[in-house]
Amino acid sequence: MDTDTAEQLEGQIESHDLKLKELFATDPGRAAKMTVSAAGWTLDYSKNLLDTQTLTLLLKLAEKANLKTEIENMFTGKHINQTENRAVLHTALRSSKTTGLIVDGQDVYADVHTVLNKMYAFATRIRTGEWLGYTGKRIKYVVNIGIGGSDLGPAMAYQALLPYSKRTLKCFFVSNVDATHIAETLLQVKADQTLFIIASKTFTTQETMTNAQTARAWLVSKLGEAAVAKHFVAVSTNASKVAEFGINPDNMFVFWDWVGGRYSLPSAIGLSLVLAIGPRNFKRFLSGYEAMDKHFRTAPFKRNMPVLMALIGILYSNGYGADTYAVLPYDQYLVRFPAYLQQLDMESNGKSVTRDGQPVEYMTGPIVWGEPGTNGQHAFYQLIHQGTRLIPADFIGFCKSHNPIGDHHAKLMANFFAQTEALAFGKTADQCRAEGTPETLIPFKTFVGNHPTNTLLANELTPKTLGALIALYEHKVFTQGIIWNIFSFDQWGVELGKVLAGKILKELNNTSLPLHHDSSTNALIMRYRAAQQIVD
Asked: Which residues are catalytic?
């Protein structure tokens, strides 16, 4: 991050004690000036601690980071994931172009559409009943077995797009290696009507393959070995391992090393979603991504929605020292969206080394959390309103509901709009007195306000608006990584725990192996062995 501009920004914050009440009072046109629209979404960022000078400095950070060139490098397939020497081409997964992007000797667009067409054909066979299970029954249950990006994306999107799903086809998502997850899922499905999707690029991921083998053993116990080929498909690149499992490689759907797991939902990882909502709606889903991609690539930064959201996030992380931000969707269908963003953001920008290998001297990736409204209002909003921490928040809502029952949606959206107003403008002691509040209670009923929020509003939650929303946050995270001068697309921090877990797994079940960990870990292993009656 450009240190000179960052220092100017810090000085600006210290010298300008911005108050949202004053900013709105002095500029009646503030909301209109600080509202942008793209790909079916409107962003009102006027309730942020921003004035023209602050925004100018933030935009200068983007320019100093050479963001425009970095955006082009990503879209055109340069190897911007330098620690793994890979291109970063999740944007190619949703491009309507079918040829013309040559990267490392491969026509990426052509490869993508070959797999998409295979997915669409397979989904059609399942949904129409052309593909039948081993006993001749139609598939009624789909169990996606993956972890991380192979689970969070499909699980979130399936829940979000339930109104567009085939309700006679129910999807489940298993990720946790805790046996409870697979066991409870298998209690809800019938072997002769279930399709398992095993999503693992290498087909060696420990958690995924443990669950896959358990599912396989369960199916074989019910239907026999010959049934595996009719009830399992793979999302992978390891054809030999897939065949060894008993899956016909013809039923393997590939993706590529230039697709990071947390960006892989539009790839074959989204097979369960295609099965649920059908090819036509999945194409609309991709079109939403593409619309936001085009906006991000072409819009000037001062009107660029992902860039503005990224800069606002940097303002609070690096200017105000905020450690977290809340994502608050006012739509029950988006219940898993905050969890999805946790991986997207924290796995991408949870880095402490710059791109030239030096320690970072400023805060990078924030902590992301949230719950749907209005549930959160009765849980953690108290802390946001009257606590001692600054917690910026993104409010996400829709003008129309898929379930227009009575005045439910009006009440939901009344709370949506009221919360951003209350957070921004608070409640003064004089207002409390005017309401007749006893003087002793005024300190407790006063709200300072000046709590910043973004408001994201779309007409309706559809496949297209969901795709655009995901792309918006993807590009926000990318922009912040560029400005922070970190590599957003590797995830080496995930690997260390995996290596240590492999070593400890052997020690848990083999008492002849000496323990050479720290005293705490050694004691915990011994306690586990004793509880399992595995004693020395």
From this structure: 347, 378, 498
